[in-house]
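Supplementary notes for students who missed Thursday's class. We covered one full example, reproduced here. Read the sequence, then the structure, then the short commentary at the end.
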Amino acid sequence: MALRPILTYPDSLLKKRAAPVSQIGSDVAQLIEDMTETMYAAPGVGLAATQVGVGQRVIVLDVHDDEESPGKRLLKLINPEIVERDGTIVWEEGCLSVPDLTAPVTRARRVLVRAWTPDEREIEIEGEELLAVALQHEIDHLEGKLFLDRLSRLKRDLYRARQRKLERQGRKGAAGGRPVLI
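Structure (token representation):
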């Protein structure tokens, strides 16, 4: 396993739609293991392949509540797609690719996701609340969307201006060690 660098806004690779995985082989298994290690080290509860510069439809998530036993709810999903959405929920989201920003985002309260596992089984996962939000957030990444795109134009512009200012000063935004939700 290896830690991979996480791309941050405004990297153009984050805006590209990921291609479906056509064959689940050792390269995909290695990508998943690397993504899992990277996600836990960040720390985050989800990571999409696009966030590590790989244009394939692969995500990993772990929305466990117990910090003592990570991996308890680890999901490794290939070619995930949302097949049902119900209700609405507003959740304070953050993103490993959008440092120093959290904001309320409206999403579906419940989703049904169909995907493949690394052992080539097709599965369905029903998620509610945090799991639903995390699934939607990561699948958005595979579509080339950031949670920043779901915010008001004013909030997006303010964030962009702050990031440009930091770059001019020779600094990059950083999460400062605080946990990022998604």
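Commentary. The longest strand covers residues 75-86. The chain is about 25% helix and 25% strand. If anything here is unclear, bring it to office hours.
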